[in-house]
């Protein structure tokens, strides 16, 4: 029965594209509209619900874990809200305690649960953020030694890429059906 | 790949006496000797930019301070910068009517380019460099305060060099008067050419003396400007301060804050050719085209000398003999006969060194060699042969006979049947095409636990030289018996 309840907890808003093949969504996960999740991605709401904001791009082998050290048994854990327009590139592992908007987590990067990420940040390819840290806006983490600098450049708009993938992915993958319709509120929730 | 990146456990003795893995050795097929990086002349063939792959002549490269003026490195993280295009709206040139309000001015899109680093997101806009109209635009050169001082110093020292050169030439001319075959008029009359010119009322032929430019030397001063009042109390933002690496990558400016980081011109790379110091033949020569990674001449040792690899080593214990398995590979297109022998004793080694010294002396005294060295750009300094700086801590029981090794044949990999018709010696464990595995017995000498066991042997092999040696008309390949000394680090005593 617990398996059923976990399944029911998954809320998928319409207009999002989530590949059903091998992608793992565990716990109370809400995917907002416009999100795009590639196959083999993992989103694990371990210590509380996860809400993924609009137009997020989650690529292959991405692991997003909400882990504050406790296991949420009675739906009372804090909610991890991931802002809109974030990009999680191939193979990154993100356990951050807070994620703002327009961030890019490049390939194979790692962000631990002691880190809070604000807006418009870039965590470079392969960079590891392990210790307690707050990334102010427009921060770039780059290089072998995970150096930090501030950028004035705004992130490019993702809409073109997302539109392209929204057309392309359903041709090759099974797509999860939306389970939540905002027009008929309180039906499932 | 592993034997290029990792420290090798099999080392060959170069003709100069240094130990090197086979991947770092060259083989001069005119001297028939192994050569290491110290035994070859390194010559710069061409300069090129590794980003735009443009070939730049050496004179131009010198003028441009060995930098490409089109490609840039990121001043923040030293990656290559790429140029990115944006479209901006620029006001159309109106026909003389300047009183139009800003809202009604017609605009047209125009492409503008700026530099950006894809690794750390640094852009040329960070430091306020205006966008350029063309992609490989004329980016403004960074000016630095000591530029004039440096150019003055450079001019002065160039003059000094020229003057010294001239003086040396004059001295040399006076010291060694030209010896002609037939004595000319001036020799007989005792008049020099310049005296005759003077008597005839002609001007001096000698080049005008280089003007001695004077520069004011730098002076040390006791007056140092005061530190700002708040230097110890003001909180600093480390994000605004450059790292040592960022400062040193731009030595002329050495910016201390990040808002002074200007794009760095990319340094040029070189293609170099290697030349044997003894016979002055080319050993490695790359193709001239920067796009090509091939060689015109490539006498790497791993193409000519049988390669020894350590396959397996039994447990190492002090005073107990053990078995090691080595693989020997024939990289050449001819059959080889290999004999494994003892390393030369100290007396034998000194004899080898004597002989090599004699040979190199003879060669450097020869008329051809001196002519060559006069023409070559780099004076050829031979590396002094020396004793091998490596003690063996174990002995090898030698195999009782020599063995054959087939030529390399790339097609044998696809053959199904591996038949060995030949009678094999006992120590040969297996054999496949040009590879053979040989079992040797090693006896560690008085070793303590934790000591490394190093054994060595001389490997004599037949080498078929297909290169036609200069001077002789012999075209048919000649067979030589060559010897390489090999040292194996087989492991540590338990």
TrEMBL record, chain A:
User: Which keywords are on file for this protein?
Assistant: Cytoplasm, Cytoskeleton
Pull one GO CC term from this UniProt entry: dynactin complex
Q: Which InterPro entries match?
A: DCTN6 (IPR027777), Trimer_LpxA-like_sf (IPR011004)
Which GO annotations describe the biological process of this protein?
mitotic spindle organization
Q: Which domain of life is it from?
A: Eukaryota
Report the subcellular localization: Cytoplasm, Cytoskeleton
Keyword hit for Cytoplasm: yes
| Keyword Nucleotide-binding attached | no
Task: Give the molecular function GO annotations.
Answer: dynein complex binding
Under the heading SUPFAM superfamilies, the entry gives: Trimeric LpxA-like enzymes
- What does this protein's UniProt record list under function? Part of the dynactin complex that activates the molecular motor dynein for ultra-processive transport along microtubules.
Q: Which family does it belong to?
A: Belongs to the dynactin subunits 5/6 family. Dynactin subunit 6 subfamily.
| Listed name of the protein | Dynactin subunit 6
From TrEMBL, chain B:
Tell me the subunit arrangement.
Subunit of dynactin, a multiprotein complex part of a tripartite complex with dynein and a adapter, such as BICDL1, BICD2 or HOOK3. The dynactin complex is built around ACTR1A/ACTB filament and consists of an actin-related filament composed of a shoulder domain, a pointed end and a barbed end. Its length is defined by its flexible shoulder domain. The soulder is composed of 2 DCTN1 subunits, 4 DCTN2 and 2 DCTN3. The 4 DCNT2 (via N-terminus) bind the ACTR1A filament and act as molecular rulers to determine the length. The pointed end is important for binding dynein-dynactin cargo adapters.
Q: Which domain of life is it from?
A: Eukaryota
Q: Which gene encodes it?
A: DCTN4
The record's comment on protein family reads: Belongs to the dynactin subunit 4 family.
| Record flagged with keyword Ligase | no
The GO cellular component terms are: cell cortex; centrosome; dynactin complex; myofibril; stress fiber
According to its UniProt record, where is this protein located?
Cytoplasm, Cell cortex; Cytoplasm, Cytoskeleton, Microtubule organizing center, Centrosome; Cytoplasm, Cytoskeleton, Stress fiber; Cytoplasm, Myofibril
Under which name does UniProt file this protein?
A: Dynactin subunit 4
Keyword annotations of the record: Acetylation, Coiled coil, Cytoplasm, Cytoskeleton, Isopeptide bond, Phosphoprotein, Ubl conjugation
Q: Does the keyword Membrane apply?
A: no
């Amino acid at each position: 029965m617990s398996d059923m309840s976990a399944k029911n907890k998954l809320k998928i808003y319409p207009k999002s594209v989530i590949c059903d093949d091998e992608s793992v969504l565990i716990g109370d996960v809400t995917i907002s509209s416009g999100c795009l999740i590639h196959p083999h991605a993992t989103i694990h709401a371990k210590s509380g619900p996860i809400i993924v904001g609009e137009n997020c791009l989650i690529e292959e082998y991405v692991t997003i874990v909400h882990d504050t050290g406790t296991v949420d048994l009675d739906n009372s854990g804090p909610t991890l809200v991931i802002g809109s327009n974030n990009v999680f590139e191939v193979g990154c592992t993100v356990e951050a305690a807070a994620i703002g908007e327009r961030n890019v987590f490049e390939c194979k990067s790692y962000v631990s649960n002691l880190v809070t990420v604000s807006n418009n940040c870039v965590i470079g390819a392969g960079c590891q953020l392990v210790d307690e840290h707050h990334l102010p806006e427009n921060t770039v983490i780059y290089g072998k030694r995970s150096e930090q600098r501030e950028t004035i450049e705004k992130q490019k708009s993702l809409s073109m890429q997302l539109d392209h993938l929204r057309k392309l992915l359903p041709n090759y993958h099974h797509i999860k059906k939306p389970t939540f319709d905002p027009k008929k509120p309180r039906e499932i929730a | 790949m592993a034997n290029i990146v990792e420290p090798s456990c099999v080392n060959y003795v170069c003709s100069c006496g240094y130990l090197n893995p086979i991947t770092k050795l060259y083989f001069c097929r005119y001297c028939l000797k192994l050569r290491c990086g110290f035994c070859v002349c390194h010559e710069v063939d061409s300069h090129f930019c590794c980003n735009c792959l443009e070939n730049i002549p050496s004179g131009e490269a010198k003028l441009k301070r060995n930098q490409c003026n089109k490609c840039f490195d990121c001043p923040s993280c030293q990656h290559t910068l790429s140029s990115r295009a944006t479209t901006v709206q620029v006001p159309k040139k109106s026909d003389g009517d300047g009183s139009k309000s800003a809202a009604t001015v017609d605009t047209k899109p125009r492409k503008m380019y700026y530099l950006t680093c894809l690794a750390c997101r640094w852009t040329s806009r960070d430091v306020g460099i205006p966008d350029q109209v063309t992609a490989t635009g004329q980016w403004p050169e960074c000016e630095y305060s000591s530029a004039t001082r440096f150019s003055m110093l450079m001019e002065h020292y160039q003059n000094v060099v020229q003057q010294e050169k001239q003086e040396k030439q004059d001295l040399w001319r006076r010291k060694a008067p030209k010896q002609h075959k037939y004595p000319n008029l001036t020799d007989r009359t005792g008049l020099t050419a310049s005296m005759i010119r003077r008597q005839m009322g002609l001007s001096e032929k000698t080049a005008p003396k280089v003007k001695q430019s004077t520069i004011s030397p730098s002076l040390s001063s006791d007056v140092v400007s005061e530190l700002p009042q708040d230097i110890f109390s003001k909180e600093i933002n480390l994000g605004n301060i450059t790292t040592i690496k960022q400062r040193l990558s731009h030595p002329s400016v050495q910016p201390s804050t990040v808002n002074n980081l200007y794009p760095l011109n990319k340094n040029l790379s070189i293609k170099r050719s290697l030349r044997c110091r003894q016979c002055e033949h080319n050993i490695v020569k790359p193709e001239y085209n920067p796009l090509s990674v091939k060689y015109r001449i490539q006498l790497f040792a791993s193409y000519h000398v049988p390669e020894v690899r350590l396959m397996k080593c039994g447990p190492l214990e002090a005073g107990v003999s053990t078995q090691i398995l080595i693989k020997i590979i024939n990289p050449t297109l001819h059959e080889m006969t290999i004999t494994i022998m003892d390393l030369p004793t100290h007396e034998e080694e000194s004899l080898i060194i004597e002989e090599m010294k004699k040979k190199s002396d003879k060669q450097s005294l020869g008329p051809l060699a001196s002519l060559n060295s006069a023409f070559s750009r780099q004076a050829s300094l031979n590396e002094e042969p020396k004793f091998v700086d490596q003690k063996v801590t174990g002995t090898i029981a030698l195999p009782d006979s020599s063995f054959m090794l087939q030529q390399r044949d790339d097609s044998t990999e696809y053959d199904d049947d591996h038949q060995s018709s030949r009678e094999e010696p006992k120590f040969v464990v297996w054999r496949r095409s040009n590879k053979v595995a040989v079992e040797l017995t090693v006896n560690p000498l008085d070793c303590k636990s934790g000591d490394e066991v190093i054994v060595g042997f001389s490997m004599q092999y037949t080498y078929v030289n297909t290169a036609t040696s200069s001077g002789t008309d012999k075209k048919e390949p000649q067979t030589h018996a060559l010897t390489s000394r090999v040292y194996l680090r087989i492991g540590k005593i338990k």
